[in-house]
Amino acid sequence: MPTRRSLLGGVAGLGSALLLSACSSGGSSSPESSASARKDGAPSRIVATSTGHLDHCLALGIMPVGMTVAVAAATNSSGIPDFLKGEFGADFDLDAIEIVGERANPDLEKIAELEPDLILSNKRAETQLEQELTGIAEVVKTNGGSENFKDDLGIVAEALGEEAKGRTLLEDYEKRAREWGRKRGTQESVSLVRSKGDQYLYFGKHSLASIVAEDSGLIRPESQRFDDRPSHELSLEKVELLDADWLFHAFPEGKASPTESDLWKELDVVEAGHAFPVDVDPWFLNASVVAANRVLDDMQKFMA
Questions:
Q1: What is the pTM of this model?
Q2: Comparing C-alpha atoms, which of 110, 83, 87 is closest to residue 97?
Q3: Which of 8, 101, 244, 262 is the most buried (most CB within 10 A)?
Q4: pLDDT computed for residue 26 by the predictor
Q5: What does the alpha-carbon distance between residue 2 and residue 21 come to, in Å, rounded to a whole number?
Q6: Torsion angle defined by CA atoms of residues 64, 67, 73 and 76, in that order, rounded to the nearest 10 degrees
């Protein structure tokens, strides 16, 4: 097996050749030009470097050959969230997807051995990592972040030659949300909180679930309309910031949870019976149209 040093030397040379070829043909590394230039068929061997990429590939009918995970030790044998297994497990052999290391530090040798013809990355990746990936295969970059999931679906769909399907997926989701909002006819507020280790995080306008709420004609509590970053840390003494018409929370077993505290129990939303536990993966960790549909399903179920 080649060493990491020899592999990086080889992929660097390959990257130079790819760049030279692009320059000589007047090409660009943008998703638009790379997708339109691919005239002899869409890519079939894809490596996804985020769960959002994985979600969108599966929704578009294509299973990646490789994927990275958020941490070295995945929560299960495949590193694939349970909600994705439930959605796509009958259609794809998800266990066949090769884990190629951590998201921030992928195993370049494993990626190269898969012989991908497309690697999905995002603009938040470090420059050095992007250069190394480009040396292995064509790289298409999405924006990253929950607030960009709709645009990112379009970028992935174009890269895979599935633009029409991507538009349909987004239109169907937005139509569902819009029609449900019209049927409810009320502009109620939705509060969002989860635990991360020993911390509590409450979420602003850029979280996926907040976007789903907005698409459905719902609003956020005044304390959760910030847009400087997706979430803010919450101290238990400030738990009143969570009060709203509806509250959705993710406190996984074994993690910090305020639900037994008196301050939590005294919240109006809790006393009204409108506080519900939800799956942390689609609600707070994934950014895709698949996750958005799951969040919408949950809202419709709990807010009936």
A1: 0.84
A2: 110
A3: 244
A4: 34
A5: 26
A6: -20
Length of the chain: 304
Q: What is the Cα–Cα distance from 242 to 280, expressed in whole angstroms? A: 17
Mean local confidence (pLDDT), 80-84: 93
User: CA–CA distance from 19 to each of 16, 22, 73 (Å)?
Assistant: 5, 5, 35
DSSP E strands in the chain: the ranges are: 46-48, 66-69, 98-102, 118-122, 139-142, 190-196, 199-203, 231-234, 246-250, 275-277
CA 51 to chain centre: 5
**Cα–Cα distance measured from residue 137 to residue 38, given in angstroms and rounded to the nearest whole number:** 14
Contact between 159 and 43 (Cβ < 8 Å): yes
Mutual orientation of helices 163-184 and 289-302 as an angle, nearest 10°?
A: 20
**DSSP string spanning 144-202?**
-SGGGHHHHHHHHHHHTT-HHHHHHHHHHHHHHHHHHHHHH----BEEEEEEETTEEEE
Interatomic CA distance for residues 47 and 100, integer angstroms: 9
The DSSP letter of residue 103 is S
Pairing of strands 199-203, 190-196: antiparallel
Instruction: With CA atoms as reference, report the closest residue to 245 among 296, 193, 187.
Output: 187
| Share above pLDDT 70 across residues of the chain, in percent, rounded to a whole number | 84
- Is residue 51 within 8 A of residue 156, CB to CB? The reply is no
Give me the mean pLDDT over the 80-109 stretch.
Answer: 94
Which residue spans within 242-291 are E strands per DSSP?
246-250, 275-277
Residue 286 has what DSSP assignment? Answer: -
Across-strand partners of 193? 202, 249
